[in-house]
Every structure is written in structure tokens, then in C-alpha cells.
Amino acid sequence: MQRPVPFPSQVDSREGWVVTVAALTALSVALGAPYVGIVALKTMAADFGGYRSIPSAATSLAMLGAGVGGLGMGWLAERVGVRAVVVFGALMVAAGLALSSGGQLWQLIVGHGLLIGLLGNGAINAPLYVYITRWFEARRGAALALLSGGQYVAGATLPPLFERAIAGYGWRQTMLAYGFVVVSVVVPLALAFLRPPPEAATPGPAAPGAGTGAPRERVLGLPPTAAFALLTGASFLCCVPMAMPASHLIALCSDLGFAPARGPVLLTVLLVCAFLSRQFWGWISDRIGGLTTLLVGTVAQATAISGFIVTQDEVGLFAVAAAFGLGFSGLIPAYILTVRQLFPAREASWRIPMLLLTGMAGMAAGSWLAGRLYDYFGVYAPAFATGLAFNLLNASVIVTLIALRRQARQHQASTSFT
Asked: pTM here?
């Protein structure tokens, strides 16, 4: 088992930021693997009878597999160290790309769901989140925001490159080549930078209503299991609409008759805005807390996804894509920060992967559902309208959690007064 290094002075240190940037780079490269299928959605669909739901399902399985795999890999990383687990994950992502490039349906499903998702990014995504939270206390929200930008760094930089490679060599050859890139980048970074994290000097502050000490009897005035169930349910609901534009924007642009290069550029705009604004959301969450950040981000995402329902022209879609990226990008790190604020640090190794699993399940459902609704209606507007409905349900859960927090604070105040 990899033991934490007992140097509290390293918490919130420059070294922690160096490690975070290395982890961000590794995560960006690994999470770039499913984007080959996203960029090649229409081309791959043509090889599978014209059904977009088939390549969409492979992408969804990669997302869902990463969430499920994070549970076991988070546990394993606690025992053998995050370095070994991340190296293993990189090798599995490369193997999944190689298998998927075979072009058979079973190869695509097994390659994405089992290798790229469950054993690959499952070993990289959740373990790195848990790992980075142990390098920070006061700046934890900002660090999580930086790390969680990995998917958007990948989405902002890789689709234009994949579009050219697919046009020149085909999606199968592009998958093979990118598998080599994953191993060449992620493995050296893991070996060089992912050293054991420091011990926190002091435990993080308890959230209002969460109580203190161990074990905690109530969280937000509820049993811990009930509070965590509401939080994970909200994570699922918010991630269904979150995945729809990212997975289908390139295909939507093609349907509207835009030039082939426009779709990847539009996706890049969305994800660049998401990455840049995520640093702002991290700064905000360190000041107003995770739950309040979730409510503001949820409202912003709902407003932006409404634009995809009514916008058809190129200029309008660029504006909506930028607004969507600015709006939704603070949600995932805010969920993780909320878990660390509400629950003991010793539970992070399973609560954070469980939260990411429900989020990944929501993204998987959103990506597949958008493809399925397109196959039925022939347009994407019903899919985005469905995403808006999920977003509004998520907002209602977050409002409930905030109301419970207020009640718990009032109860604490009255108890202290008496």
C-alpha cells in the first residue's frame, strides 16, 4: 500500500500544483480516446447500417465503464498506489482502441466498454480525483476545477486533429495511432510525477449541518446514506443534458449543411470555454461552497441547453456552444467538493468514485438517448428538450439540498442557543 508522505507543509504547495498539471495532462490524453468515435460518428454509423445509436452506444459504454471501473480502481489505488493503477489504465485504453479498430460490432462494444472504459479510464479518472484532493485543503476547489478540465482539454484540442486524420486515413487507423499516443504520454507522466500525496495537516472544515467527529450521525439533517443518495441522483440528472451537445454537436453541424471542419471547431469552442470558465468556477466554489455553486451552474446549463432547441444558424450555434461551455463547466468539481465538505476524508476513496459513476452513467445515458431520439425523430431538437427536462429535475434536487442545509443550520443555532 502506498502510504501518504507525512509532510503537512506540502499541502496547498507549489509541488501540489505541479502534480495537478501532470495529472491533468495524463487525464486529458486518456479521456481523448472516446473522441475518435464522436468525431467519426457519421462515418462509423455508415459502417453499421446507418444507425447513429450504435457508435453513440460505444461512447456511452466507455463513459459508463469509466464510472463503474472507478469504484474498484479507487480501492486498488489506495493499496498499491495511484502510479501503478494509472499506468495499467493507459495500457488498457490503448488496447481498447486497438480492439475497436477491428471494425466489428463486438470489437467496438468490448473495446470501448471494457477496455477503454472499465479497465482503462476507470483506472485513471476517479483515482486521480481522489489523489488530487489529498494535495490541497484551502485551494481544493480550484485544484479540482483544474483537474476536471481534462475532458475539455481533450475535446478542445483533439477533434480537429481527429477530423483530419479520419478524412485522410480512416477511423480505424486513427484509433490505432492514438492508442500509441496514450501509452507514450500517460505512462511516462505517471512514473515521473505521481508520487505519494502528503498527509493533510488538519481535517477539512465540516459542512454546516454535517456535524463533527466520527462517525457522523446526520448530514444536512439526514442520514448520511440519504444525503449521499440525493447528491448522486442530482449528479446523474445533471450529466444527462451535459453529454448531449458534446457527443452530437459535430453530427448536428453536418446535418445543418455546415462545412466538415465547422463541427470540430464548434466543439472546440464549447470545450475551450468550459475549460477556461472552470477555473473561475473553482475560485467561486472555494468561497461560496459546493452546493451553492451547483445551483448557479445548474441554472446556467439549463439556460444554455435551451438555446440548442431553437438555434439552427452557424453564428447562433457558436454563441450557444460558448454559453453552454461557460455554464456547465463548474458542476462536476462542485459535486466532488461538496462530497469532501459533507463527508469525512477517510470516505473519499469510495464516495468520490461512486459520485463519478453516477455522473458517468448520466453522461452515458445522455449520449445514447440523444442518438436514439435522433433515430426516431430525424432531428435533434427533441433530444435537447429532453435534456432540458432532466436539467430542471436536477435543479429541484439541488434546491432541496440547500433547503435542508438551511434547516440544519437553524436547528444547530437553536440547539446552541438553548
From this structure: 0.74
